[in-house]
Every structure is written in C-alpha cells, then in structure tokens.
Amino acid sequence: MSGNDENAARGVPDGPFLEVACDESGSDGENLTGGNTDVFAHASVRLSVAASAASVQEIRDRIRSPAEEYKANHLLREKHRAVLEWLLAPAGPIHGHARVHLVEKAFFVVDRTVALLLDDDPAAAVTLFRAGRRTFGEEGWRDFLTAANQLLRVRNDGRPDVPVDLFFATVDALRRAHPGAAGAEVLDRLADHRPRAVAYRARLLDGPILVPVLNPLLPSIVRTAAHWSATGRRVRLVHDRQNMLTPERIAWIEETARRDGIGLGGLRLVHSRLDPRVQLADFLAGIARKIASDELNGRGDPALTALLRPYVDPASVWGDARSRSLLAAPLPGADPSACVAG
Question: Model-level pTM greater than 0.85?
C-alpha cells in the first residue's frame, strides 16, 4: 500500500499541512529529581478525528469501564493487557502514525547543568552521568542531582546565593572523596565555573523566565515538530491544554522552529476530552512513560518494551545505555548506546 493509500485508509486527509495531536505524561515542573516520576514522555499522533474517535470507542468497548474519561492507567492494568497489546501492535490503529519523545529526567538535569557551566558539552554530560552512581555511590550521586536541580530551577525560597553554595560544596566534597575516579574530571571542570552559576542565578532575579531550563516540555514540542515535518510538509500541532503553554511560550516554540528550519505552521490548544486525537496521544504518553520507567529501573516487560520501541524517537534524551538500547533504535550513524541531549 502506498503512503497516500495508507493515509486514506487511516482517514488522514492530504493537504498543505499535517495536523498532529500531542499530549504529555510525567510533568513535575522543574522538580526533576524529587518528583513523582523519573521519565517524561511527549506523544504525538497523526490520525483523523474520525479514525481517532473510532479507536477510542474500540478501547472503551474492549475495556468496558464505567469511567467517564479513560486514561492510560486503564490500559496498563494487567486484566486489560490484550487491549494494550492491540493498541501498540503493528496491526493496531496507531502504528506508523504515532511517535513518543522520551526524557530521562536525571540525565536531563545533568545535561542542562553541564550545558550551563561548560558551554553545552554533551560528551561530558554522558561521561558524568554514566559514572555518577558507580563512582560516587547512591547517596553521593543523589546529593549531586539534588544540588544541580536546585541550582537550575527558577523558584528560590531563600537567598539567591544558597543554590550556588550548595552545588559547589557538593561538587567539592565529591571531588575530595573520589580524586581521579571516573567522572571526577568533569566535576573538576564544573568547579572552575562558579561565576557562570552566579550570573545565572542573578539573571533569575531580573524577571520572569520565558523558558525554564529544567522543563522538558518546550524542547520536546520543538522536537515533535521536527520529526513530523522532516518529509518537507509543514506541520500544525494540536496540544492538550497545559499551564506551561502560555501565548509567550507558544510564540517561543514557533520562533525556535523557524530559526532551526523546522516546518511548524502553528500550535493550538484544545481540551483532551474534546479531541479524540489528543486522547490517543494521552494514552500513548502515559503508556510509554510507564513502560520506559520500568525498563529504566530493571523491571521491564520485554514484550511491552518491544511493542513500544517502534514509536520511540531515536533523538530522545536518555542517559542509561542499557535501557536506551532496548527502548529506541539508534540515530543513523550513531553509537547504538549514545545519548541525545536536547
């Protein structure tokens, strides 16, 4: 079946724009190291409203729950395993028409910290992250992640210098305890750039920050637009309503896309209950976050991980080498275990 024939079968109209529906799962704001989830997932679905409504109704008919609004946890219950497998399977309703961008939150914190202090050095971020727990121990590594999160987050309940002092005290303690160990060289480099951290915290006092460094939603939306527009057709995104998506931040997303040569033709917000396409994206985001988190923590279900893999963006921001190799195909020409930071 040709691409156009397949689109027709799925009810996707041809036109100057691809319209893609999006939603996320696992948002904890800027609290990436102490929140409720360790994975953020941004899902997108390209199907017509009619085809999406039929799929949502099929899910309801198969699950037969009295709930007014279905969520991903309905499909993740063991008694509904067959429905979940049907949804993700190659013959299922969204295969080939959906994508998930994953973010491993702990790695995202390390990557953004290194970017701030070392002029965006992805290799250093990967080195530090993969050595962290093994070199510094569970407690030491947790202390580093917590201090880095506090350094970067916009909210500050105390003096502006407190997060800076805490971060560099933590870095110095780890350097003294583990001289010459794997990852310590990156800490040595971070320790030399306290003025950058001080300048960053000072900027936060000047006024509201348009794009918080630690929130993965905005860059994930840009990445979603890049994926769907890669064929050369411009994309319009339909996104579930989200407090983070203010008019100013939507304008930032659109401007960033233009600057990067991404064919984004606009982004509008809807309520998920009013758009079945967004409901499917909501299902996929929640499902992907749970499957990816289980795999990250060594309790993955091989069958579900394999079913999810075709949906996962190879450019996902993921630091753990083992789980990454199972969750996503490598980027063309890249090391299969490599991370992509965005």
Answer: yes
